[in-house]
């Protein structure tokens, strides 16, 4: 009787085959065939002697393999057309049988080796990768995770108490593990990270993320050498300084109405720029406090920020600053702290200066004369103006206000624009921290679409949608652990920032006079 089994040629051992009945002992001539999951040079013919074991409900199989001498005899007999005589092995000592548990362990080990071999043969990134922001790169074999390390990760770093691995896929130079998360994500991440560091030091980086394909937790382990920050051709400080100087010029220009109608005349009337200095300082102060809030929160959470790039604008002086995050943010709550700290600081100072502008009379007794309808452009500014000015604010009537109102309003508008929930803006990072990556991508798409429609009527919206699309579209770089939601206190802060942005940007729809309300 011939049976074909997938097993290595060098196999020697004993098997226990559980059977309900055993009526006789018989010999099996097994020819082992090559299996993709094992590496071997030759496959030999072996003899199985199945002997009933009265102490167990099973059959003990004694396995032997002919030596080289018997191989030669076998070849000779094959040439002569004879069947070689097989010596009875019943006289040999029978080793103790191997039970079913050992057989299962042997099978599991072979299966694991086969899985690792298949992983090694595939260099493609798994589809639906949960690590956006990490650009694909051609990796040398030297920085790919070895098969032995993968086994240690599966059996010793992960575990039943943290993350039970069920399958794995290649990811760049690392591995994406799918499985079942046990307990709280933050605690499990800390345990896995500690074990990973104990085994391999700082050689590998762990991410605990949400798979965008099925919204289930996944763990990704990659060599840290694949996470090196990108370098720029131009030094960062030089580019930031150049943008800063241009922004100073546009802030001054924006506060000199005489030069805004003819920009080319600015170079012939540079002395007029000094008239825009007070307004430029107030707006720059709000921008500076905004960035200071980011850096203070980043220092508290261990997040490293790059040099801020101030974006110039001849409409409102500046579009704010683009600040890169230079390292991996630990979790969504830390990202929320850093992202919301800037707008909160900017809004606080801007609102204080706006209120002072409405309360304090102009220093020259005249101030800035504007039409009352200008306050319809912002729900927040219009509501405060109606509350503080009362019946003085009438439709179609010119009103004299302290220029501090206009300067503070510009600072609030810049904060509001940065609070749009899109891409890598402060608002985009806040929405990501509040509701996760998938929701953040949806907010980005909706925001860009709405800005695109608004750009048909407003040139500021047009330039801002271009800026987001080309510079701040994202995606946001992966966090170390993206599963745990932020605390309720920080959720309230994030939602407040988004609401304030809406209140500043949305128009004030109600009329300013009672007569209009009655006739309406």
Automatic annotation (TrEMBL):
Keyword vocabulary terms for this entry? Chloroplast, Hydrolase, Membrane, Metalloprotease, Plastid, Protease, Transit peptide, Transmembrane, Transmembrane helix
Family membership noted in the UniProt record: Belongs to the peptidase M50B family.
What membrane topology was assigned to this protein in its record?
A: Multi-pass membrane protein
Highest taxon above the source species: Eukaryota
Pull one GO CC term from this UniProt entry.
chloroplast membrane
What protein does this entry describe? Answer: Putative zinc metalloprotease EGY2, chloroplastic isoform B
Against Pfam families, the record matches this protein to:
Peptidase_M50
Q: Does the keyword Ribosomal protein apply?
A: no
Q: Name one GO biological process term.
A: proteolysis
Annotated stretches, region: Disordered:
60-136
What ranges does the record list as Basic and acidic residues composition bias?
A: 70-88
Where composition is biased (Polar residues), the residues are: 113-126
Species in which this protein is naturally found:
Glycine soja (Wild soybean)
